[in-house]
Amino acid sequence: MAIEPDRLDQSGRELAAILKRLRKQAGLSGVRLAARCNMSQSKISRIEGNKSRPSLLDVEQLLRGLNAPPAIAAEVMALARIAQTEWQGGRTLRRKGLDKKQVQLAGLEASSTTFRYFLLSMITGLLATPEYVRASLAQAPPEQQAKAAAMKLDRQRVLFDRSKRFTFILTEQAVRYPLIPPDELALQIDRLASLTHQPNIRLGVIPMGVHFTSGALSTFTVYDETLATAELDLGAIVFRDDRDVQDLILRFTGYEEYALFGEQARGRLAEWAAVCRS
């Protein structure tokens, strides 16, 4: 099923309105429905007011409590799954301010303990040198660049929190992407190699020439096993549905089989850095 970005924005409001309408058609008050579903009345009120995002389990409970016909229940569950996905458009993020995105990412990093990054075309900010960070923000509004760069670099402190575990998988294209001059890129690659010694960081690289059986690839991040993001040049998609998150974890596990880690990764990174220096 194709999902348009505008559809993602509207789905939460539609779901709230449909659940409220179904309750009224069933002749139930919020209190009576809450009792049937073993929920609080205030939770149902927040869901119907689109002030709280219901989980798929919440929606299933509500539909059972409403004795919704199978055909209607199927339609509502399909809408609920879309509502678990959020589109974050690049233009909107820039208009609100790139610092808001950095605060959001810092919050995710603070509340999560296990991180999986698959980097297809560029190096993520957590691994980037200051030069790389500044170059990655070159297309941002000039008045936002300095603050966003500082916040990106400050977020890197999370890498040294030994209670957290990071796995980064980078394609050769991502490592060698010429965002910055060759001498600066060599230092960036050196930084990647140095991070492979960090006890709570597992960093692997996938050389060019590897044939993937999964078809098209995309950059994505999985936080614990509860939330994932996939990045496009126009924005990012946030997945909260457990099925989507588990699918991305499964893909990530498959990519790990293609990646070089440890001494093999450091050897390949050293080769690529040497090419930059030559």
Topology:
Layout: H1 5-25, H2 30-37, H3 41-48, H4 56-65, H5 70-83, E1 85-89, H6 90-96, H7 98-111, E2 114-119, H8 130-136, H9 142-155, E3 165-171, H10 172-176, H11 182-195, E4 201-206, E5 219-223, E6 227-232, E7 235-239, H12 242-256, H13 262-277
Parallel strand pairs: 2-3, 3-4
Antiparallel strand pairs: 1-7, 2-5, 5-6, 6-7
Describe the fold and architecture.
The protein has 278 residues and is α/β, with parallel strands linked by helices. It has 13 helices and seven strands. Strands 1-7-6-5-2-3-4 form a seven-stranded mixed β-sheet, sandwiched between helices. Helix 1 runs antiparallel to helix 5 and helix 2 crosses helix 4. The chain starts with a helix and ends with a helix. The N terminus is likely disordered.
What coarse outline follows from CA principal-axis ratios?
elongated
Quaternary status: single chain
Tell me how many strands there are.
Answer: 7
- Distance linking N and C termini: 49 Å
Name the helicity range: 55-70%
Query: What is the ordering of alpha helices and beta strands?
Result: HHHHHEHHEHHEHHEEEEHH
Structural class by sheet pairing and helices: alpha/beta
Rounded Rg: 22 Å
The fraction of residues assigned to DSSP E strands is 5-15%
